[in-house]
Amino acid sequence: MNNFTFENPTKLIFGKGTIAQLATEIEKERRILICFGGGSAKRNGVYQQVKEALKNHRTWEFWGIEPNPDYDTAMKAVKLARENQIDFLLAVGGGSVIDAVKFIAHAIPYEGDPWELIVDNTLVRRSTPLATVLTLPATGSEMNHRGVLSRRRTLEKVSFITPYSFPRFSILDPEVTYSLPTKQLANGVVDAFMHTMEQYMTYPDHNLLMDRWAEGLLMSLIEIGPQVLLQPHDYDTMANFMLCASMALNGFTGMGVPQDWATHRIGYELTILFGLDHAQTLAVVYPALLRVLKQHKRDKLAQYAERVWGIQFGSTDEKADAAIEKTEAFFQQMGLHTRMSQYGIPAEAVDTIYNRIQARGVSYGENLLVTPQVAREIYQNAL
Amino acid sequence: MNNFTFENPTKLIFGKGTIAQLATEIEKERRILICFGGGSAKRNGVYQQVKEALKNHRTWEFWGIEPNPDYDTAMKAVKLARENQIDFLLAVGGGSVIDAVKFIAHAIPYEGDPWELIVDNTLVRRSTPLATVLTLPATGSEMNHRGVLSRRRTLEKVSFITPYSFPRFSILDPEVTYSLPTKQLANGVVDAFMHTMEQYMTYPDHNLLMDRWAEGLLMSLIEIGPQVLLQPHDYDTMANFMLCASMALNGFTGMGVPQDWATHRIGYELTILFGLDHAQTLAVVYPALLRVLKQHKRDKLAQYAERVWGIQFGSTDEKADAAIEKTEAFFQQMGLHTRMSQYGIPAEAVDTIYNRIQARGVSYGENLLVTPQVAREIYQNAL
């Protein structure tokens, strides 16, 4: 087992009716900037609940954080926050709003060009306290120290990690998810599934518990995924989904294990170049990555086949093949495409993406298996 | 799923050679009281590593915290700490040393009679920062807000819970466990196993992930338990054991689920009256509790039989019976007795214990199933 440090100070407040606890969780003297996405918070009643809970606090509002949040949008919120001496940030939304708020929190007190914080995360040495009210289970951002920001001007999408990004608390009320569109629910299930896979699907490393916990997450998501689409107004169904999504990327299954993350890193290209949702990129890239790297990941694929999919017969190779097929079929069952061509992306995209990755000159994945050349092969396979 | 709040701010520093990180994890200006048990820390080299790491800090030492730590012992450390303006506590040891240090931390700044803090945990409103170097995987105290204290003078053993009990950080180096006696290793495995069972073995409650994670812990402990006894100098074996023990009682499998804890609460009697180790009490009481409450716990017992023990055939009743047998056999495999008579405890003890529990007038377990009368039945069954 590899040495590791684990820390996750975020307080989780989970269950129906818990948004009201904002009233006591945030100190009365705070000057709070509440950040929202495109307006769904008003339609599903979350806005009203938040405002009611904070009616005795001083609050400002910032609206319009888009999916794959943009640096320029975030900087508008930074300006508003600085003008009003904001000292607490509340993100009300899904992963995009939360990720943007993490960056806003760090940028507010930073005296240099805030983009520097993205390029070198260690420059984040103080920040603004932040909390979240989660409305879309998917990214796990509500309980981790990660964020992803895009800069459309320069065709960039980059992730940042700093301990200052942990929310002080996050409120998860499964009832607020009832009005989510099917597509967002499906994306959320696939996103949580992939977060688990990225920390699990490498090679056997004799970390018994982390393997079991990852497998437990995968089995739960496979069981709950179809139900989420069928009965999105069932409390227990949505509570299980919401809990799984938060637990899939909060470090709980990542202690001391080798990790992959190549699919995330090379998948960003499909968002930035072709506008695919994050989960759509994962569902397209991952089956292809597994096919291309099958020999490297074979033993772990067989373990996954046995324990998660209940495949008891066949050779290691056959189990690995079956596991890849089951994974792709699960994404399809959730309504996502698993081929680039299904999104109308032309074959020439393979070279476009290859050239961009090649220019960066970095490799991804466990043991840095995914060189630019291997990434090209994966995209070719995903056409 | 029940509403819940989850929070665990303890930082885990895990792996070989990590004791040296004490040098940077504790601020230079701190006045540190290092608390130890009976002297094993000097024999296994942990003492030397701790002192070397803290050679540029101001440190005091307190030795002699016993298993099932006693209030009077802890109060001697409180006196020493107050006399020397101690503002940081470092526990070096297993659960007993850590539990005592938690109490010492709270007692130092408390102006009333410190026993009041045990009787009413909400009186703990400030405390002394504490950290741990774990030498014995078992109780999970290194990563939770729980503690247990005994007062031999008055034949009391009581648990206390307060958020102030979370260590700031805990250092877990599997190599320090190599010299532990077999009995302590076996006790540790059973203790971690039972912590998981107390949060799991109630009734089906449709919390998919928490069930899977508890089952993952149980499967890992069943796999690793015998190896721990056979090859206690194997790094990966001990690392897996150490990680499981910490994860078994840090809240990670307890989110929104009904819990039991009756075995712990009524088992305390066997320690306080007959001096049994904590794990020995669990191994004696639990099989009897499962037999007595089989009808109430039947459906969850069958799930446990299927998923953890791989028992696929038979009726629900038969699976439940098999699960109880497997559990008792596992405790025996770890070298623990599962009957009171094997410890020479006479049949009259049943009434003695019953009278003590009856006098308290409280019931334990999910749905408060374990009334004093049921506790009597369990002890009768455990003879």
From TrEMBL, chains A, B:
Entry-linked Gene3D superfamilies: 3.40.50.1970, Dehydroquinate synthase-like - alpha domain (1.20.1090.10)
All residue ranges annotated as the Fe-containing alcohol dehydrogenase-like C-terminal domain in the record: 186-354
A single GO cellular-component term on record: cytosol
InterPro entries from the UniProt entry: ADH_Fe/GldA, ADH_Fe_C, ADH_Fe_CS, BDH-like
Superkingdom of the source species: Bacteria
SUPFAM superfamilies: Dehydroquinate synthase-like
Family stated for the protein in its record: Belongs to the iron-containing alcohol dehydrogenase family.
GO molecular function: alcohol dehydrogenase (NADP+) activity; butanol dehydrogenase (NAD+) activity; metal ion binding; methylglyoxal reductase (NADPH) (acetol producing) activity
The species this protein was found in: Candidatus Gallibacteroides avistercoris
Listed name of the protein: Iron-containing alcohol dehydrogenase
Keyword Nucleus: no
UniProt-listed PANTHER family: ALCOHOL DEHYDROGENASE YQHD (PTHR43633:SF1)
Residue stretches making up the Alcohol dehydrogenase iron-type/glycerol dehydrogenase GldA domain: 9-174
This protein's UniProt keywords: Oxidoreductase
